[in-house]
Hints:
Largest sheet: 3 strands, mixed
Distance between the termini: 76 Å
Amino acid sequence: MGESEHxxxxxxxxxxxxxxxxxxxxxxxxxxxxxxxxxxxxxxxLAKTVIGVTEGREMLFIRNASIQRKLTLVIFFVSxxxxxxxxxxxxxxxxxxxxxx
Length: 101
């Protein structure tokens, strides 16, 4: 663990950084695997950035957690909007069918 500027990129396992007066951390999966350490998926989800290879597959796994959170919120609100539109369409349909003539 370290807090130098490029700690994770230089081979460290977990690097801490200060961002907007909050302590964040980055994880290097290659370094963790080399040290025979397993990193939980919960810890990976909380990390600002994760880099490395997972389970022998060459896979660049650089992820920005704040972008993931924003995309999750966008997907959630689009889903809620879609559900609202469906309910509105159903209500309009019911009123059109049951209008007294």
